[in-house]
Write a structure and sequence with these properties.
alpha/beta, two-stranded parallel ribbon
Length: 245
């Protein structure tokens, strides 16, 4: 697994309604994420960092830019990091153990498992716990397995992206899918389905010493981009080395 780092972000009190990052540049670019939206982050590892930041912030009260909600995390990339969650929870004065317990995690190791989790199990899970945030990590990777034919992968991926878009609308939840930097032509093609279904989409490009975040799709905000600057971590970085309160 690649080393996880977080940029030197300054967490602010949110002034934008909806689920916020509490990072001024991001919230100005994206606005608050709203219930009923299917949100896609694609590109660098920062996509995953931001998705896990939202897993923590969703547990905050509405007045603090959260959703006062538990989370469902479907780990298609096998990259969920409890250490990051715990450290980020401390940044927002949340109990790390309780924060982790409020995240329902399920891992998929094949495209078939991920399809079943999304189309069959996810609605049942939402019936049980009423979470208002669902995150699916690196959603396209498992459909790039050579054991899945290209046409089957496209057909199935088109089906699940439509299911996710419909689920976000019907359940009035925020559904976030990440897709880490495309390693194959198939993955790049599958991302077109994600962008087609997304309510909000952003591309994140790695740089040094910054990450460039480009808003690709939004229902009412103009296309634009911002840069988040960070300090390159050492071999064993601590989250507090890169975040300030």
């Amino acid at each position: 697994m690649q080393n996880l780092y977080a940029p030197a972000l300054i967490f602010l009190q949110p002034s934008i309604s909806g689920l916020t990052f509490s990072v001024e540049e991001l919230d100005n670019l994206l606005g608050g994420l709203r219930l009923g939206e299917f949100v896609v982050f694609r590109g660098s590892w920062m996509c995953h960092v931001l998705s896990e930041l939202l897993c923590v912030r969703s547990q905050l009260p509405y007045a603090e830019g959260g959703l006062d909600s538990t989370v469902v995390f479907i780990d298609g990339g096998n990259i969920f990091d409890p250490y990051f969650i715990s450290e980020t929870a401390r940044q927002f004065s949340l109990n790390p153990e309780e924060t982790l317990m409020n995240i329902w995690i399920s891992r998929a190791f094949t495209g078939y498992q991920l399809t079943a989790l999304i189309t069959e199990e996810l609605p049942k899970i939402l019936d049980q716990n009423g979470s208002r945030l669902v995150v699916i990590s690196d959603i396209a990777t498992l459909y790039c397995d050579p054991d899945i034919g290209a046409m089957e992968a496209k057909r199935t991926f088109n089906h699940i992206t439509r299911s996710l878009w419909e689920l976000a609308k019907q359940r009035n939840i925020i559904l976030v899918a990440t897709s880490l930097s495309a390693q194959s032509e198939r993955k790049r093609r599958l991302e077109h389905y994600l962008l087609g279904r997304a309510s909000v989409a952003a591309k994140i490009d790695a740089g040094n010493p910054h990450e460039k975040i480009t808003l690709e799709k939004h229902p009412f905000k103009p296309m634009a981009s911002v840069k988040l600057f960070f300090n390159e971590p050492g071999d064993q970085p601590l989250l507090e080395d890169f975040m300030e309160v």
